[in-house]
Amino acid sequence: MSQLHVSDEFDALIGRLAEISPVLRENAEQGEELGRLTDEAAKALLASGALRIGIPHELGGYEFSPRQVIHTIAEISYADASTGWAFMALQLATGTTAAYLGPAAAAELFPDVHNGRHALMAGQGTKLGKAIKVDGGYRISGHWHFASGISMASHVHTAALCEETGEALIFTLPRDQATLVDNWDVMGLRATSSIDYTFEDVFVPDAYAYEIATMDVRTGGAIYRMGLANMAGICHTGWALGVGRRMLDEMRALAARKSGAPNATVDTQQFYAEYAQAEAKLRSARAFAMEVWADCEATLDRGERLTTEQETLTRLMLNNTTWSVHSVGQTVYKWAGTAALRQGALQRFFRDLHAGTQHVTSGPVVLQNCGKLLSGLAPNARWVFLDLAEQK
C-alpha cells in the first residue's frame, strides 16, 4: 500500500499560480521598497491556496509530495524571488507545525483549512534561544534572526534549548507575543520581511512544543517522516531552480533585443558557448534534484525512512543546485552588461540570488560533511538536523 501522498490538486494549483504570476511580478519592486510582500501579492498567494501545500491532507491541506513542492516553489520564485522565499518559509513552518504538534494543538491552529481558516507560521529553527521547564510548559527567551514571511504570519515557530533536559525544541506561539525588530536592511531578498524578533520570558504550553530533530509524525503522511532539515532542503531546491530559470530567460530576452546592434557581445561565439554552458548547469542541477527526490519518494512510499546516504544526497544535491544557479547568475550578469546594473528584474534577481546562497543549508560545513560520509570516512555517522554525528 502506498504511503506517500501525491496530491491531485497539483495541476489546478499550478494553473492558478500562472494566473497570479503577473500580480507577483508587478508588485516586486514595491515589495522591495516596503520590505515585505505587498498586500496585493499576499492576497493573491492566499487566494490561490498555495499555502496549503505543506499542510497534512487529513487536516484539509494538499500535502504535496517532494517533487510537487519543488515545482510549486520554483513556479512562484520564477515570478519573484522574494515572494518565493517568503512563501517557502511560511509553508514549511506551517506544514511541519501541523504534522509534529499533537491533535489538540492542530485542531486549534487548523480549524477549517478548506475555507482558508488556519494559522500561518514564520520564524526559524537554526539558532537556539533559552527555554526553562515550568508546570504545564516552558518559558522561552531569546533573540532570533530571519523570520522570513512574518508580515503574513499569525504565529511564530522558533527554536530554543531547554538546559534542564538538554533538548532543542521548536515552539509555536502567537506572533503578537513577539517583539519584532525592523532591521531587514540588506542587499537582496528585501521583500521577504526576514526581520529579527525577540521573546522575553514568554510561556508556551507543552502541547505547542516538539523536538527539533523529530521524525515522529503526529498528523500527516510519509513526507513528514524526513524531519525539518530534509523538508527545508526540498524548499530551497525549488527556490534556486526557479530563480536560475528566470535569470536565463531574462538573458535570452535581452539577447534578442541586443542582437544585430553594432559590436553586440551577444552575437559572439563566446556568448553562445557560455550561454549553452549555463543552460547545461541549470538543467543538470534540476536533473540531479529530480533523481534524488524520485529515489527518496520511492523509499517513503514503501513506509521506510531515508537512509543516511539518501539524506546525504539530499544535502549534496541542494548544495550543487544552489551553487550551480549561482554560476548561472554570474554568467547572466557578465553578458547582460550594464543592463544588469539598472533597476529591474535582472538586477533584483541577481541580488536576491546572492542573498539566497548565504543560507546555512548550502554552507561549506554541510558540504564537507557530505564528502566525509560519501568517501567512507564516517561509516557510523548519522545526520542530526544539519550536523553529521558519529554514532557510538
Secondary-structure-derived class: alpha+beta
Instruction: Tell me the name of the CATH homologous superfamily of the largest domain.
Output: Butyryl-CoA Dehydrogenase, subunit A, domain 3
List how many beta strands DSSP finds. Answer: 10
Q: Using only CA atoms, what is the Rg? A: 21 Å
* Beta-strand residue fraction: 5-15%
Could you describe the largest sheet, including whether it forms a barrel? 8 strands, mixed
Unreliable residue stretches? none
Oligomer: single chain
User: What is the average per-residue confidence, as pLDDT, rounded to a whole number?
Assistant: 97
Helical amount among residues, as a percent range? 40-55%
Overall CATH class of the largest domain: Mainly Alpha
How many separate domains make up the residues? 3
Structural notes for this entry:
The protein is of the alpha+beta class. It folds into three domains: 10-115, Acyl-CoA dehydrogenase/oxidase, N-terminal domain (Butyryl-Coa Dehydrogenase, subunit A, domain 1, Orthogonal Bundle); 121-211, Butyryl-CoA Dehydrogenase, subunit A, domain 2; 222-387, Butyryl-CoA Dehydrogenase, subunit A, domain 3. It has helices at 10-26, 28-34, 39-48, 66-79, 81-100, 103-109, 227-258, 269-301, 308-336, 345-356, 364-374, and strands spanning 121-122, 129-134, 137-144, 155-162, 167-174, 179-181, 196-205, 209-211, 381-384, 387-390. Strands 1, 2, 3, 4, 5, 6, 7 and 8 form an eight-stranded mixed β-sheet that branches. α1 runs antiparallel to α3 (39-48) and α4 (66-79) crosses α7 (227-258). The longest helix is centred in the last third of the chain and has 33 residues, at 269-301. The model has no long low-confidence stretch (mean pLDDT 97).
